[in-house]
């Protein structure tokens, strides 16, 4: 089953996205990069509004000077009661101490972690078994720049290899990156576990603009039809 993640920037958008069928409410500040960290007060308000009726994820920013700074931000978001925290792949992951801290965090708190790989940077699929060993919940293939959508920046073969590697290591595979309604038919053929949208469900396809619930509903309906078809044929 392919689930739907919608990135939101306030309580109103979260409410609209949830009512339109989003499975994941993703807390993100679209004015501050691909993984802009949303104000903690707004995050807390959204968590309370959603009230466990959907999964809530939160981002922690695109880049960090020190791993301790990143870990502190992860802990801040966790304390707000989110279900999932998304953090970018970085050189920190090569540090065994960082890996150990993440492994301990997952084991002691049961927080779900998703690492984001960027298609417009070098995609290293050899990280996937390492992330699985640490205890990550999933991996998302996204775009750092929103000038082009994911399917224009990376080949279908690469995306398929990414999804298969995630499946092999029991990680949830997510696809995102300037996606729109018209790309859904191509996306579902790649069989990710979830797909993420922001700019493609906003006014004028601009991620900083207001979210349009009818576009969320349209995507959800396309996914529902695909999921029902897969259930019938036993995929």
Report on the structure:
With 235 residues, this protein is an alpha/beta fold. The protein has a single domain (3-233), classed as Alpha-Beta Barrel (TIM Barrel). Helix 5 (127-134) links the parallel strand 5 (112-118) and strand 6. It has helices spanning 11-19, 40-50, 67-79, 96-109, 127-134, 150-153, 156-168, 184-188, 213-233, and strands at residues 3-8, 24-27, 55-59, 84-88, 112-118, 138-142, 172-175, 194-197. The mean pLDDT is 95. An 8-stranded parallel barrel has the order 1-2-3-4-5-6-7-8, surrounded by 6 helices. Helices cover 42% and strands 17% of the residues. It is built from 9 helices and 8 strands.
| Biggest sheet: strand arrangement | 1-2-3-4-5-6-7-8
Largest sheet: 8 strands, parallel, barrel
Please work out how many helical segments DSSP would assign.
9
CATH class, named: Alpha Beta
Spell the H/E element sequence.
EHEHEHEHEHEHHEHEH
CATH superfamily annotation: Copper homeostasis (CutC) domain
User: How would you sum up the global shape?
Assistant: globular
User: How many domain modules?
Assistant: 1
Q: What is the percentage of strand-forming residues? A: 15-25%
Annotated CATH architecture: Alpha-Beta Barrel
The CATH topology is given as TIM Barrel
Strands, count: 8
Radius of gyration, CA atoms, in whole angstroms: 17 Å
Distance between the termini: 9 Å
**Uncertain parts:** none
Q: Pairing-aware structural class of the strands and helices? A: alpha/beta
Mean pLDDT over all positions: 95
Q: Estimate the helix proportion, in percent.
A: 40-55%
